[in-house]
Amino acid sequence: MAKLTERKLYDVSAPNASTGIISGRSSNVLNWDDVRFSWAYPLYKNMLGNFWTPFEINMSSDIKQFSSLTETEEDAFKKIIGLLAFLDSIQTDYAMHVSKYLTDSSLNALMTVLAFQEVVHNQSYSYVLSSLVNKDEQDEIFEYWKHDPVLRERNDFIAEGYESFVNNPTPQTLLESIVYDVILEGLNFYSGFSFFYYLAKNQKMVSTSTMINYINRDEQLHVYLFANIFKELRKECPELQTEENDKFVQETFVKAAELEIKWAKYIIGDRIPEIPISDLEAYIKFMANKRVNELGVERPFEGYRTNPMKWIKVYEDVNQGKTDFFEQKSRQYTKVSEENGFDDL
After folding, report:
1. Which of 94, 101, 125, 224 is catalytic?
2. CA–CA gap between residue 214 and residue 196 (Å, rounded)
3. Annotated catalytic, 283?
4. How far, in Å, CA of 196 to CA of 130, rounded?
5. What does the longest C-alpha to C-alpha distance in the chain come to?
6. Are 253 and 300 in contact (CB under 8 A)?
7. Could you report the per-residue pLDDT of 243-272, keeping only the tens digit for each?
8. What is the pLDDT of residues 114-147, one digit of tens each?
C-alpha cells in the first residue's frame, strides 16, 4: 500500500473544502462555512466549550486529605497518575503525526485543539502531584511507566501500535493506529477513572477527581473525533473496508481489555471492596464493546451491553447545568451533546 504524503502548506489551485480526508487536495485555508465534514464545526465548538485549566482547581482540601488515604489508596493514586501522564504525553505527539497527513484543514484544526487539551491534561498531573508530594517523589511517579512491569506491558502495547504508523504511514497503518488511539482514550483510562470516582464518592480527594472529571469529558470528544475519522477513512478508501480490518478491531480491543483487566487487578484487586474486581472487569468489557460499536464494528464480547457499575452514572449529568457533583455549585457543560457526551459516565 502506497505511503501517505504530507499535507501541503498551501495550494492556490485547490478548493478550501478538501477533496479527501487523506491524499486529497485543499488550499489548506480554513473556512468553517466551507468544510468537507458536517460534524467538524459542531465538534470544534464542543471542544472549545470544554476549555479549562488545572489552575481553576483548588487543591487545599486534597492536600489535607492525602495523608489520610489508606496505603492501598495512596499506592493506586500514584500509579494511576503515572499511567495517565504517560498516555497523555504520547497522545500529544501522536495527534500531531496524524495531523500531517489529514488533507482537510478542519480536521487539522481539531487535531490542534486535541493536542492542546492533551498538554493541559498532562500538566494537570504535575499540578496535582506538586501539591501532594515532594519533587523527588513526583519525578519517581513520572518514571513508573519505564520500570513497573504491568504498566510497561500495557503502555508498550499502545506505543508499538502508534510507532507502526509513524514509521510507515499508509492508509492501513493509519487506520490501525486509530484503533489504538480509541483504546487509549476510550478504554485505558477507565479503571483509573473509576478509582478516582470511588474516592469522590467517599468525599476523598474531591479536587483531584474534579480534574479527572474534566479530563474524562475531553476524552469523550476525542474518541468521537477519531471514531469519525476511522469511519470516514474507510468510506474514502474501500480497500480498508474488509473483514480482516473488522477482525483486527475486535481482536485488538480484546487484547486491550485483557491488559486493562490485568492492570485493574494489579492496582485495585480485592483491596478496595467498594470496587469489586468482577464489576470492574465487566465494566472494562462493557466499555470495550461500546468503543468497538462506535467504530462501526460488531462488539467482541458477548453480552456486556449495560454498565455494571451503576454508581458511576452520577457523572452522566455533567452536561445538564445541574449542581456540580464535586464542587456543589452550578457549572454549565452546554457543549456536550447526546451523540458525544457522557452517555455512560
Report:
1. 125
2. 12
3. no
4. 18
5. 65
6. yes
7. 999 999 999 999 999 999 999 999 888 889
8. 999 999 999 999 999 999 999 999 999 999 888 8
Residue 284 contacts residue 264 (beta carbons within 8 Å): yes
State the fold for domain 58-317. Answer: Ribonucleotide Reductase, subunit A (1.10.620)
Q: Please name the amino acid found at residue 259.
A: L
Cα 64 to Cα 28, 90, 192, 205, distances in angstroms? 51, 32, 22, 9
Q: Which residues pair with 330 in a beta bridge?
A: 323
Distance in angstroms (rounded) separating the CA atoms of residues 85 and 144? 10
pTM of the shown model = 0.89
118/304 Cα distance (integer angstroms): 30
For residue 314, the model assigns a pLDDT of 62
Enumerate the domain spans of the chain. 58-317
CB hemisphere CA count around 74 (13 angstroms): 12
Per-residue burial over 278-304, b = 16 or more CB atoms within 10 Å of its CB, e = otherwise: ebbbbbbbbbbbbbbebbebebbbeeb
Angle formed by the axes of helices 277-294 and 243-267, nearest 10°: 150
Residue among 77, 105, 345, 312 nearest 204 (CA): 77
